[in-house]
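Please check these two lines:
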Amino acid sequence: MRILLIDDEASLTKILIKFLEQGGHEAFPASTAAEGFEKNGVLKPDLILLDLHLPDMGGLEVLSKLNETVSPASVVVITGEGSVDSAVQAMKMGAEDYLEKPIDMERLRVVLKKITEKRGLQKEVATLKRNQVEMYRKDYLFLTDPDMQKLYSEVEQVACQEKVTVMILGETGTGKEHVARLVHALSPRAAKPFVELHCGSLPESILESELFGYEQGAFTDAKRQKPGLFEIAQSGTIFLDEIGELTPSVQMKLLKVLEQKTLRRLGGTREIPLDVRIITATHRDLEKEVKEGRFRADLYYRLNVIPLTIPALRHRPDDIVQLANFFLQESCRAFNKKLSLLSDDLLALLKNHPWPGNVRELKHVIERMVVTAKTGNLTVKDLPKEIREAKVRPAADGKKVLTKVESEQANIKHALLETKGNKSNAAKLLGITRKTLFNKIKKYQLD
């Protein structure tokens, strides 16, 4: 670790610096608070050993200012005999531990080991979070439609507010689960559990026991105690898909959980405290459901704190092209096939299909084409009959449907963007030779 020692006692400082360096740490001294602040800004230490009695400022005031810095270091305070009260106050302010003078070197060794292990764990969690974020950026956050870019911006803002309840709205198949996972991955809860449940997939009796758990003997088949999904998601996120399918009885129990932040297992008497972020999703018009008495108004307002709306795929023709090419690559890897980029005529048909099943339907169509393809090129004839023979629709919401040339230009631009201008990799992504790519770049003046 990199350690900053702020202490005005020269003899002790000399001994501690030597001890820390012998233990494999980088150690730097500072004899005043002012010098400590300066070196803290430059060195960015992992740990600060802080004497509570400094010549220019009280140690607790120093600790308070250190807590305000970006990515603050761990702090262990050093106090003289009879000053334990100050040390306890420092612990309440966020200090990791305290050492009394004269310092017991063996105790210092134990404290250093504890903090080293904690910092290591924090780095692992940070790495895990970064990996999760990158995974979702790679798999989902490449869509360029302005409405989707706006949605991503909203997701990033909401994700940081880890206690805020989120409701994701959108037609079936638009990717509500992906957005829910993205909110979780970008949040401070990223390293904690993400638990999901489709509310319409289970009968009421089983749904209640799944959500809230049960005690042994709560009903005939309850042979042993079972925690519910809310407990399993503790400190993390629970995603309740198709929340509009809940029965009135379950709606009432969910409302109680939201209001009290506790739950009681079926057959139990103990209230279990909960720290869980709730994300819900629905394709229903819940405002209409509330007006018609099928959904509780009080629950709706509790859940609909931050609404995120995913636009239908038919309103995002450019995303259809990007998603189709992405699913092609994904399916080729899954089924161990080598197929070229989708032809322009094929892409034009895909862009003009209404996609009532949205992204999910598009993914399944591409998978089906890859599985049944007999040649290295996917063309219109590989499309399922119901899509191939469908009538061409007009552009949605006034958005332009690209011509064959425009579509090819867009594909090349996207491939170059994805590969950061590497033409060899872009050619592979497009399924064409490097020479062909150069010719098309020259033809369309894309340099």
